[in-house]
Design a protein that fits this description.
This protein is of the alpha+beta class and 452 residues long. It has two domains: 222 residues, D-Maltodextrin-Binding Protein, domain 2 (3-Layer(aba) Sandwich); 173 residues, D-Maltodextrin-Binding Protein, domain 2. Helix content is 47%, strand content 12%. The chain is built from 22 helices and twelve strands. The protein is globular, with a radius of gyration of 21 Å.
Length: 452
C-alpha cells in the first residue's frame, strides 16, 4: 500500500484541483484501495450522503436510549453521538437488552483526578464493563492493562487479514490472544476553498509554503483566511501534534508526548510544560508553534483562533470568510453539506516519505475486559464487511477493512492516506496523560506563545 507514496506527492499540485471534477464520477461502490495518497473534494452525491450523516446525528438522542442493565455491560467512552449510535446499533444486532446493557461515559471537565488514566480507570471499573469502546491512545492502553486473564480473543476469529496494513498495526495482541481491535477511524485534514485555489492560479497544495502562498493571495478578499476551532483543547492539541509530525517527524512527536507525561500528575504546571515543548529550536513543538506564529503575525491566521469554537468556524465557512480550515474528518461531517462541498480536503503535507509518516488518525478500539461470549460476538461482528460498511456510512468515518465500501470520497481517501503510511498516531490529546482541565491549561499556554 505504501510503494507509490512518493509519486503521489509529486503529483499533488495538479491533483488537488483535478479531483474537483473527478469527484463527479465517484460512486458509492468503492474499488479496492490503491497505494499512494490522494487529495479529495466534495460532490453533490457526497453532499446528500453527508446530509444523511447529519440527520443521523440529530436523531441520536431520540434513538440512543438507556437500556435495562443486563449481565454484560458495554461502555462507550468519550465517543460522539454519531459514533455511539452506530456502535450501539451494531451491538443490538448480536445482543439484546437482556443480555447486554450499553453505558455512555464522558471525561469530566471538573474532575478531581490528577491524570487522565486514573479518571478513566475509576469510571470504567465502577461501570463493571465487560467491553469498552475507546479511542486509541493512553486510555486504550490503560483499558488493555485492566483486562482480566482470559478476556483475550482468538486471532483466528477476528477479520484481521482483511484490514489495511496500517490498521493491522493498530491491533493489540500477544501470545495469549487479541486484546484490542480497531473498528473505525478519524483523520486530521486541511480543507481548502476550491474557488480560492482556482482563482489563485495555483495547481494544487503540496507544501506548507503552498498553504501560506494561497493564504497571502486570499487575504486580498478575506481578512484572515486561515482558521481552526482553537478553543476546543482536544482539536488544538491534535493540530499541534499533527503539525509536529509533519514538520519535525514522528520522533519529535513522541518526544513531546514523553515530556508532557513525565510532568503530568499533581505537580502539573502548564506554563513549564509549554516552555519545555517550545522554548528552544530543538524542542519538539518549536517548528509547529513557529509556523502558526508566523501565520498569526502576517494576519493570515485569525487573531481569535484560540477563542473560536467549532460552530464559529462553521459560521465562518458559511459566510465565506474562511478559506483554509484545519479540522478532523469527524468535524467535516458536522458541516452543512452545501457549505463543505465548496472545499477540498488534503492531508497535512510533509517532506518525509510515506514510510516515515504517521498521520494523526484516532481509532475507536474495542477492548474486551472480561471473558464473555457476548463480547466475543460483538467484536467479531464489527469487523465483518457488512458492519464495517454500515459503521462507515453511519459515522462518515473510515473503515479498517481494505476492500469494503465507503460512503464517499472523504472516508475513502482517509483510509487511502493512512493505508499509504505507517500505523497512525492517536493524536496528542489522546496520547498525553492530562485531564480535560489540564489539557485546556496547556492549550492556553501554547496559544499565548503563538500569539505573543
Amino acid at each position: 500500500m505504501k510503494k507509490n507514496f512518493e509519486n503521489q506527492k509529486k503529483n499533488q499540485k495538479a491533483g488537488t484541483e483535478r479531483n474537483t471534477e473527478s469527484n463527479k464520477k465517484q460512486k458509492n461502490e468503492q474499488k479496492p484501495e490503491k497505494s499512494g495518497v490522494k487529495k479529495s473534494s466534495r460532490t453533490k452525491k457526497a453532499a446528500f450522503i453527508a446530509a444523511g450523516v447529519l440527520v443521523a446525528a440529530a436523531a441520536a438522542f431520540s434513538v440512543y436510549k438507556a437500556v435495562p442493565k443486563g449481565p454484560s455491560t458495554v461502555v462507550l467512552y468519550d465517543l460522539n453521538e454519531r459514533e455511539e449510535k452506530a456502535i450501539s446499533d451494531s451491538i443490538r444486532k448480536v445482543a439484546d437488552e437482556k443480555s447486554v446493557s450499553i453505558v455512555s461515559l464522558k471525561s469530566d471537565a471538573k474532575t478531581d483526578e490528577k491524570t487522565a488514566d486514573k479518571e478513566f480507570e475509576k469510571a470504567v471499573k465502577k461501570s463493571g464493563a465487560s467491553l469498552v469502546f475507546v479511542k486509541s491512545g493512553l486510555k486504550a492502553e490503560k483499558a488493555v492493562s485492566m483486562a482480566k486473564d482470559g478476556s483475550e480473543l482468538a486471532a483466528g476469529t477476528i477479520n484481521i487479514g482483511e484490514m489495511t496494513t496500517s490498521m493491522k498495526g493498530a491491533v493489540k495482541a500477544d501470545k495469549e490472544g487479541v486484546k484490542a481491535v480497531p473498528t473505525i477511524f478519524d483523520n486530521m485534514e486541511i480543507d481548502i476553498d476550491i474557488g480560492a485555489l482556482r482563482n489563485s492560479g495555483m495547481a494544487g497544495i503540496a507544501t506548507w509554503d503552498d498553504i501560506e502562498k494561497l493564504a497571502v493571495f486570499q487575504k486580498r478578499y478575506v481578512e484572515n483566511p486561515i482558521v481552526f476551532a482553537g478553543k476546543d483543547a482536544e482539536l488544538a492539541l491534535d493540530i499541534f501534534g499533527a503539525l509536529t509530525e509533519a514538520m519535525s517527524g514522528v520522533d519529535e512527536y513522541k518526544n513531546a508526548v514523553e515530556i508532557v507525561n513525565s510532568h503530568s500528575g499533581a505537580d502539573f504546571n502548564a506554563a513549564r510544560v509549554a516552555r519545555l515543548l517550545t522554548e528552544k529550536s530543538d524542542y519538539p513543538l518549536y517548528k509547529s508553534v513557529l509556523y502558526l506564529s508566523k501565520l498569526y503575525k502576517q494576519g493570515l491566521l485569525h487573531p481569535n483562533t484560540f477563542n473560536l469554537e467549532k460552530n464559529d468556524v462553521k459560521a465562518f465557512a458559511k459566510a465565506r470568510i474562511a478559506s483554509i480550515i484545519f479540522m478532523s474528518l469527524n468535524d467535516h461531517r458536522a458541516f452543512d453539506p452545501k457549505v463543505i462541498s465548496r472545499f477540498t480536503s488534503i492531508y497535512f503535507p510533509s517532506e518525509f516519505s510515506g514510510e516515515n509518516r504517521k498521520f494523526t488518525s484516532p481509532v475507536i478500539c474495542a477492548v474486551p475486559l472480561k471473558k464473555d461470549k457476548a463480547v466475543k460476538s460483538i467484536v467479531e461482528s464489527l469487523v465483518t464487511t457488512e458492519e464495517q460498511e454500515r459503521l462507515s456510512f453511519s459515522t462518515g468515518l473510515a473503515p479498517v477493512l481494505a476492500r469494503c465500501r465507503t460512503p464517499d470520497r472523504q472516508s475513502s481517501d482517509a483510509r487511502h492516506w493512512v493505508a499509504s503510511t505507517d500505523t497512525p498516531l492517536s493524536g496528542l490529546s489522546a496520547d498525553i496523560n492530562l485531564t480535560k482541565p489540564q489539557r485546556t491549561q496547556l492549550v492556553n499556554e501554547l496559544a499565548a506563545i503563538v500569539t505573543r
